[in-house]
Amino acid sequence: MAGVLVHRKELDAEIAALAPEFPIDQMARIDRNILRIALYELRVSGDAPAAVIIDEAVELARMFGSEASPKFVNGVLATAVGEQSGREERERGRQGSAGTT
Q1: What letter would DSSP give residue 65?
Q2: Domains identified in the chain, total number
Q3: DSSP one-letter code for 20
Q4: How far is residue 2's CA from residue 17's CA, in Å, rounded to a whole number?
Q5: DSSP single-letter state for residue 26
Q6: pLDDT in tens, 17-70
Q7: What are the Cα distances from residue 44, in Å, to 19, 53, 72?
Q8: Are 58 and 73 in contact (CB under 8 A)?
Q9: Comparing C-alpha atoms, which of 10, 31, 11, 33 is closest to residue 22?
Q10: Please, what is the end-to-end C-alpha distance for the chain in angstroms?
Q11: Distance of alpha carbon 89 from alpha carbon 72, whole angstroms
């Protein structure tokens, strides 16, 4: 939890970018905090595979959030993972093409 608090501003900025139609200050507290924890695990901690982190976050949303929470949390985190994968692919492509010149 300490890591989430240390990185809270960056995590909140990423959540705001991933879900611009849901202002972070108006988002349900439980959803916001589940997203913070999951994004911290995805971006900083890296202790578990992305699929496991998302599954656990969705389960927490199902247990403690509203009826819409699991779908919302899943969507935001899936977008985050997709964007990260896209960035990594582009970076690998740049590294590969740099070696061929």
Answers
A1: S
A2: 1
A3: T
A4: 23
A5: G
A6: 999 999 999 999 999 999 999 999 998 877 789 999 999 999 999 999 999 999
A7: 20, 12, 22
A8: yes
A9: 31
A10: 46
A11: 26
Q: Which residue has the higher pLDDT, 3 or 74?
A: 74
Q: Which residue has the tokens 């899943």?
A: 74
Do residues 73 and 65 make contact, with C-beta atoms less than 8 angstroms apart? yes
Q: Any idea what the CATH number is for the domain that residue 87 is in?
A: 1.10.940.10
**Maximum CA extent, the chain:** 54
Q: Which amino acid is at 55?
A: D
**Amino acid in position 78:** A
Task: Tell me the pLDDT band of 86, cut-offs 50, 70 and 90.
Answer: low
A 10 A CB-CB count for 80 gives: 23
Q: Quote the tokens at residue 28.
A: 């349900």
Query: What residue has token string 């990594």?
Result: 88
Structural domain including 39 reads 2-98
Distance between CA atoms of residues 78 and 38, nearest Å: 11
